Amino acid sequence: MNFNTLEFLLFLPVVVAFHWALPHRLRWALLLAASLLFYFWWEPLAGLLLAAVVAVTWLCGLGAAQGKRPAVRKACLAGALGACLGCLGVFKYAGFFARLAGASPGWRLLLPAGISFYTFQALSYVLDVYRGRTAPEGHFGYYALFISFFPQLVAGPIERSERLLPQLRRERRLDREGLAAGGWLLLAGYFKKVVLADGLAPLVDGVYAAPGGASGPAIVLATALFGVQIYCDFSGYSDIARGTARLLGVELMENFRAPYAARSVREFWRRWHISLTAWFTDYVYIPLGGSRKGLPRRCLNIMAVFLLSGLWHGADWTFVVWGGIHGLYQVCAVLAKGRGGARLPQGRGPGLLRQGATFALVTFPWLFFRAESMADAWTLLSRLGTGWGAAGELLPLATERLPFVLPALACLYFLERLPACPPASAGRRALAASALLLSIGLGWWASLASGGGNAFIYFQF
Predict the structure, then answer these.
(1) pTM surpassing 0.85?
(2) Rounded CA gap, 435 and 343, in Å?
(3) What is the pLDDT of residues 60-101, one digit of tens each?
(4) From its phi and psi, is residue 159 left (phi > 0), alpha (psi between -120 and 50) or beta?
(5) Is 139 an annotated catalytic residue?
(6) Distance between CA 367 and CA 386 in Å, rounded?
(7) How many Å apart are CA 183 and CA 434, to the nearest integer?
(8) Among 24, 117, 285, 379, whose CB has the most other CB atoms within 10 angstroms?
(9) pLDDT value at position 125?
(10) What is the pLDDT of residue 426?
(11) Rounded distance between C-alpha atoms, residue 146 and residue 60, angstroms
(12) CA separation, residue 15 to residues 148, 249, 358 (Å)
């Protein structure tokens, strides 16, 4: 089930109403049933895979905590690693590794929605139990709900057990403030997705669908707009997920914190997809040695993390290159810090200039992320220098696209600066909500008129 479908808009109020009508002891069962319905509605076979991952990792978590011998505990950890990474390897990377080996597979497995997210969430639980950082969850129903909780099942945020499980277990009370905050997040998320991301998509797709005929200005504009599109798409999903959870009395972590306001690439990664950055830091970077084993090893660990992060996003060299470029940015920052660059005052230089430079650095790798293949990426790069001197190409680009782009960017600018909950006064609250609802309705109508809305970008990961 997709957030931007009529089925979900009918599904959500029914679940919320029954959730608050039931006594606390029965709510976990309702939410688990709703979560399974939400996912099985998508693809029943993928739902069976989710159920298998839940069962295996729950048993492995119990064994990793209660095993009396270290060998038993290690075997349980290996079982969880094999189940989660094995599912990713088979369903997501089999074709990629086959191509690396020189084979040309004629088959293609269906990629289950959300597999990259729920396997990482299950794996972090077992690793935390094995390390003694969290107690194992003895109730299978609550653990199954923790992994399959429908607001964040398909595209995160990747929650930790010590944060989400206690919220699912404790008795929650219906409160007006939580409902208002949840509704506000839903409106903001739908506005980002339906109005901004889906509105920008045709402008980006028109260039990347035919890279051989694109001019340099069109490529630069489309790539910059893709950076805005993917942010609105993914942060919009996260806002809808957080808003849905708040309606149920659960608070999910903030996954985005105005990343394009960052003044360095390093700061960008503290603001972008926060749950994934934290996951790779805790379960890959630190176990590899982090920054504890000297500068060369630290740089190698950074590159390993970002290359793996790129591969996590997709089984193609384009994503590996995207991650590698960001890894090089981080390594250069570390080397500059080692040479005394960190002693420069943080406030030096105009803030907007630093933000603009960071946006440019972050935008360039989006070209590889968005390109359909490495061949398309090289074609786009080769054409970056074309079309800059021809007013006949620049004028149509401005007149056809900027009338939509500029208002969209202005809306995003002001939306990012709105509070996380509705304005205090009833009049302002009604005005802001009405404006967002009107925009969402118009955006939805436009998407239906063009043949239907776009799926969330991160659903493919």
Answers:
(1) yes
(2) 46
(3) 999 988 766 888 899 999 999 999 999 888 888 877 777 777
(4) beta
(5) no
(6) 16
(7) 12
(8) 117
(9) 96
(10) 54
(11) 16
(12) 15, 12, 42
3-state secondary structure labels for all residues of the chain? CCCCCHHHHHHHHHHHHHHHHCCHHHHHHHHHHHHHHHHHCCCHHHHHHHHHHHHHHHHHHHHHHHCCCHHHHHHHHHHHHHHHHHHHHHHCCHHHHHHHCCCCCCCCCCCCCCHHHHHHHHHHHHHHHHCCCCCCCCCHHHHHHHHHCHHHCCCCCCCCHHHHHHHHHCCCCCCHHHHHHHHHHHHHHHHHHHHHHHHHHHHHHHHHCCHHHCCHHHHHHHHHHHHHHHHHHHHHHHHHHHHHHHHCCCCCCCCCCCHHHCCCHHHHHHHCCHHHHHHHHHHHHCCCCCCCCCHHHHHHHHHHHHHHHHHHHCCCHHHHHHHHHHHHHHHHHHHHHHCCHHHCCCCCCCHHHHHHHHHHHHHHHHHHHHCCCHHHHHHHHHCCCCCCCCHHHHHHHHHHHHHHHHHHHHHHHHHHCCCCCCCCCHHHHHHHHHHHHHHHHHHHHHHHHCCCCCCCHHHHC
As given in the structure block, the two tokens for residue 162 are 């010590």
Distance CA(147)–CA(297), nearest Å, equals 34
Mean pLDDT of all residues belonging to the chain: 84
State the maximum Cα–Cα separation within the chain, in Å, rounded to a whole number.
76
Which of the residues 19, 24, 273, 313 is marked catalytic? 313
Cis ω for the linkage preceding 345 (within 30 of 0) = no
Residue 456 gets the label, from left (phi > 0), alpha (psi -120 to 50) or beta, of beta
Token pair, residue 376, equals: 């398309």
Residue type, 434: S
Whether 232 contacts 197, CB under 8 Å = yes
pLDDT band of residue 421 (cuts 50, 70, 90) is low
Residues 330, 265 contacting (CB under 8 angstroms): yes
Q: How confident is the model over 165-223, as pLDDT tens digits?
A: 999 999 988 888 888 888 888 888 888 888 888 888 888 888 899 898 888 888 998 89
Which of 238, 266, 458, 255 minimizes the C-alpha distance to 369? Answer: 458
